[in-house]
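RETRY 2/3 - previous attempt timed out on the joint model. Re-submitting the same 630-residue input unchanged.
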Amino acid sequence: MTAVVSAEHLGLTFPTGDGDIVALSDVNLTIEKGDFVSFIGPSGCGKTTFLRTIADLEQPTSGTLTINGMSAEQAREARAYGYVFQAPALYPWRTIEKNVALPLEIMGYSQAQQAERIARTLELVNLSGFEKKYPWQLSGGMQQRASIARALAFDADLLLMDEPFGALDEIVRDHLNSELLKLWDRTQKTICFVTHSIPEAVYLSTKIVVMSPRPGRVTDIIESSLPRERPLDIRETPEFLEIAARVRDGLRAGHSYDGDLV
Amino acid sequence: MRRDLSLFQLYLALVAMGIGGVGLALGLPTLGTAPAVEVFFALAFLSGLRLVVRFSPWLDGALAVFGAMALIVSLPGGVMPAHHWLALIAAWAFAWLFVERLSACIRAGILPETGVGLLIPIMFGLALLVVWEVVTRGANVPPVLLPPPSAIGMRLMAETHILWADFVQTFIKSVLPGYAIGCLAGLAVAILVDRSPFLKAGIMPIGNFMSALPIIGIAPIMVMWFGFDWQSKAAVVVAMTFFPMLVNTVAGLNAASSIERDLMRTYAASYWQTLMKLRLPAAGPFIFNALKINSTLALIGAIVAEFFGTPVVGMGFRISTGVGRLAIDLVWAEIAVAAVAGSAFYGVIALIEKGVTFWHPSVRGGRA
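RETRY 2/3 succeeded.
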């Protein structure tokens, strides 16, 4: 097993006019190849900031962070990861296929390669037949699937997902979650997934990172004992509920640390 | 009360009917001098039957057109008989009633929007022209003050070659090149300004200063610099169109959301890739706004600039010398050409905008 992401004593402080905000403090984490890691915690716990730091969209102020043995900046320039944002962020003047082609155009793939990859990734997210549609002609769930196809198109081994289904209703979210699991199984990618839903985190992950705010830090790392193959009704098994309870305890511990009432 | 008329429409109908009756009575002593107008009064009075039978809106339209034609046909050489003014008011009321009822029908979905919808502004424009014609000729307004539209129309027909030459000189030679240069320069400088904070601090105030310069002030200077021909007019147009394009493009280049930019960064896209594939397309609606504003500014600039020295051709030249020679109908004909050219220019750009920024919620009529 090789570490895809490795963080040691990672810290990030945003200076503001109102004093410094410690977004991340002493984060130590190793993510192995093929892991499905969920980051869970209340708002302000730094889970999105941590993902953005992996993506070199934020720069840590202390500690070390390596991605595939490189610095975050080198990894970004080597196009080591695909990033799925909270919003689909599809460009409205491009059709779905052109949106998926966007990273391919930037990275200089040939027309033939582009066509092949567009077809393959749209197939993967069940959007075949919608190539010529514009984003605003599709539902929110379909738009988010298209943005996942876009992140998959250039075959980065690491997929970073920042609450990709947060804006969707629960029925669509369940469906996309089980599709995401199948996709992860088929492509053998490493996935980092930010969420604030306990069932979502437990259902998807091989490893759950529980975080808490002020300062943003990791309070617990839970290795899931669930099998890779996970039907939706696994969520009613005692095993699942046990892990969910542990996550809930972790979140509660993080809160009481602040002296909050629980 | 009839249910196919609103209260307001009923008032209009009653006014038209009442005027018909009064006009008929007032016209009795001079019966037979203006038969068309008398027939119109009679018909207007009869339209009061709408209180008992259904009266189609098209009949109102026909009555309005008939009244207008009767009035114009019966216009005397001198001052119009007093009660004919009533006919003008009645015809106006019918026209108003017609468009009111038509738009009500469109709103209710009885009549289709396309085609019929176009009839409303056409009717409105025609009504204005008729009132203009009847007032200027009926009240014997001196043509130097305001010529009737018919005289302007005759001038338009008679002087096509002059008007065409002026159009070529002003629009084709001055406006189009000036517009193209001004807009392209504004766009290019906006991209430079966006790239460098130093330029932003330096150029934006100068651009602001330039836009505050009165065109009346810079036009004579441009004539001194670039000579009497079209080059100086194009230079004025450049000066006028540059700043709106600069400001709008600078704003537009920041229109892309932070998430859309982050996406480009995750692809390790270069500055130019981000510019061409994200920031310029996102700026499209802003750039087209500037193009539309500039399309009318450019024509104004070129025409005014021609007041300050020009070869003996050009719309501005014709207007300024026409006023001096009291050839006011030629001035008005020139204004009509300028208005049509300006609207057509604007319309073409609006059409292109629809094609290029089809994706923008304001164009496709959807939510964001």
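Chain A has a mean pLDDT of 85. Closing ticket.
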